[in-house]
Amino acid sequence: MEGRLPGLLIAPSILTADFARLGEEISDVVAADADWIHLDVIDGHFAPNITFGPAIIKSLRKITKKPFDTHLMIAPADPFLAAFAEAGADHITVHAEAGPHLHRTLQTIRGLGKKAGVSLNPATSERALDYVLDEVDLVLVMSVNPGFGGQSFIPGQLEKIRRVREMIGRRPIHLQVDGGVSPKTIAAVVEAGADVVVAGSAVFDGGGRESYRKNIAALRSAAATAGAIAV
Ligand SMILES: O=C(CO)[C@H](O)[C@H](O)COP(=O)(O)O
Ligand SMILES: [Fe+2]
Asked: What domains can you pick out in the chain, each with its CATH number?
């Protein structure tokens, strides 16, 4: 497909969707060519917002078979991993800052039969991944501080994305970037090494599947110009 970067996955974040019509909103982004559905779980303790938990995810599971990419901004995460797995999460990503036993947490997620992800806040070094990469299926670099959609991309995170890409080497690990990704920033993110981008406000703009289709297509074609766009 013209303007489409092979291998790039787009994961719309439902944080900026209309929560009164969440099922329809998910059907609409699926119809609009989303690859994964990114579910932001926030507890008001680890990050300053409160969203939803396993019960909502279980209901949404009926809407689509697309991978549910679950971003846990909660601490502690360990007591809730089984509930998110049972609710239908496919990927469970925890924050490196959320608990003292990251290695054990990642082993638990894989033991539940799910893909294990680690997320890094903007102030967290990529060195937090040392000694756990063999337990990881996905690294999520936050390009905003966690909690809210619609924030501005933090350009300093591009250097971290490049370093994580180098650390991953030939391992089969996705490198995902989340926060402030738009047609203006996506090329730089992809050029730095991301193969999965999360986008909330850039996708859920306009309302309805035709707008979402245009928004996702705009992200894909901007990504395909990697090299030409600065942030
Ligand atoms: O994890 C998140 C916030 O904590 C969201 O996934 C992220 O902010 C997406 O929204 P936007 O693309 O509007 O920045
Ligand atoms: Fe997220």
From this structure: 9-223 (3.20.20.70)
